[in-house]
Amino acid sequence: MRIDKFLKVSRLIKRRTVAAEACDAGKVYVNGRSVKPAYVLKVGDVVEIRLGQPICFTVKSLNEKASKEEAQTLYEIKG
């Protein structure tokens, strides 16, 4: 699944266009590297978003049609 779509489906970023803009601006990192919106995410990838308050999480599953209740099960925030 594309990183911009994952960020929207997981409800970490409200809109896909905002997620794509964050990627283009170099504010989204996967496994330590800056990525573009079309980057294909895999289970186990470590993602860092540097928008306002930085957040770092591990991708647990990929589901393009996750409901609001399922959204939080797609990732695990690293403490």
Please characterize this protein's 3D structure.
By secondary structure, the protein is of the alpha+beta class. It is built from 2 helices and 5 strands. The chain has helices spanning 3-9, 16-24; strands at 28-30, 33-34, 46-49, 55-59, 75-77. It has a 5-stranded antiparallel beta sheet with strand order 2-1-3-4-5. Helix 1 packs across helix 2 (16-24). The chain is globular, with a radius of gyration of 11 Å. The mean pLDDT is 95.
Condensed summary:
By secondary structure, the protein is α+β, with helices and mostly antiparallel strands. It has helices at residues 3-9, 16-24; strands at residues 28-30, 33-34, 46-49, 55-59, 75-77.
What characterizes the major β-sheet?
5 strands, antiparallel
* Count of strand segments: 5
Unreliable sequence segments: none
> In order across it, which strands form the biggest sheet?
2-1-3-4-5
| Tally of individual helices | 2
Estimate the strand proportion.
15-25%
Distance between the termini: 25 Å
From the spread of the alpha carbons, the general shape counts as globular
Which H/E pattern describes the elements? HHEEEEE
- Overall mean pLDDT score? 95
Structural class: alpha+beta
| Gyration radius from CA atoms, angstroms | 11 Å
Estimate the helix proportion, in percent: 10-25%
Give the SSE layout.
Blueprint lengths: L2 H7 L6 H9 L3 E3 L2 E2 L11 E4 L5 E5 L15 E3 L2
Helix pairs in contact: 1-2
Key traits:
five-stranded antiparallel sheet, about 80 residues, 5 strands, alpha+beta, globular, single chain, about 20% strand
